[in-house]
Amino acid sequence: MGVKKKQHPSVQQFKEFVRKHPKLIQEVRSGTKTWQQFYEEWYLLGESDEMWNAYKPEGEASTAAAAQGNADGPGFMGQMMTFIKNIDMDQLQTHLASVTSAIGSVQQVIQQFQGNKAAPQQQQQNNPFFFQKD
Fold first, then answer.
1. Would you call 88 exposed, middle or buried from its count of C-beta atoms within 10 A (0-12, 13-18, 19+)?
2. What is the DSSP string of the chain?
3. For the segment 86-99, what is each residue's pLDDT rounded down to a tens digit?
4. Distances (CA, A) of 112 to 1, 105, 129
5. pLDDT tens digits along 26-58
6. pTM
7. Maximum Cα–Cα distance for the chain, whole Å?
8. 3-state SS track over 27-45
């Protein structure tokens, strides 16, 4: 009657990933992170993210960094450089032009409302039925 639940394929893949990155086990045992946190990061970032190099065995981590060449630098700066390289300048220019146009329209509306505030006071003074309280 030993019914064994079949695990989701992603869980099986994550287990294989942990076998390739044994330092993850040390992190969980030390209480730094939980398996849930590692699983979520693995699911979102993928196996090829540079973050995982720190959890590989010593020899493999240095060869992985050398294989990538570290041209963009590690961590956040490397990600920012990759992001900047992938920006389409034509699209950026189009978006900036539309934002500028929208801001100009909002300014015109504000100026119209400010102009209308002065007008009602003049209308009240010219109105023959307007009586000012003495």
1. exposed
2. ----PPPPHHHHHHHHHHHH-THHHHHHHHTSS-HHHHHHHHHHH-TT-GGGGGGS-HHHHHHHHHHHTTTT-SHHHHHHHHHHHT--HHHHHHHHHHHHHHHHHHHHHHHHHHHHHHHHHHHHHH-TT-----
3. 677 777 787 788 88
4. 80, 11, 27
5. 889 998 889 888 888 888 888 888 888 888 887
6. 0.40
7. 98
8. HHHHCCCCHHHHHHHHHHH
Q: What residue ranges do the domains of the chain occupy?
A: 9-74, 87-126
Do 74 and 68 touch, CB atoms closer than 8 A?
A: no
Q: Which two tokens stand for residue 33?
A: 């992170």
CA-to-CA distance for 123 and 134, rounded, in angstroms?
Answer: 19
Instruction: Return d(Cα 65, Cα 60) in angstroms, integer.
Output: 9
Instruction: Calculate the CA 38 to chain-centre distance.
Output: 19
Query: Is the model's pLDDT at 112 over the cut of 80?
Result: yes
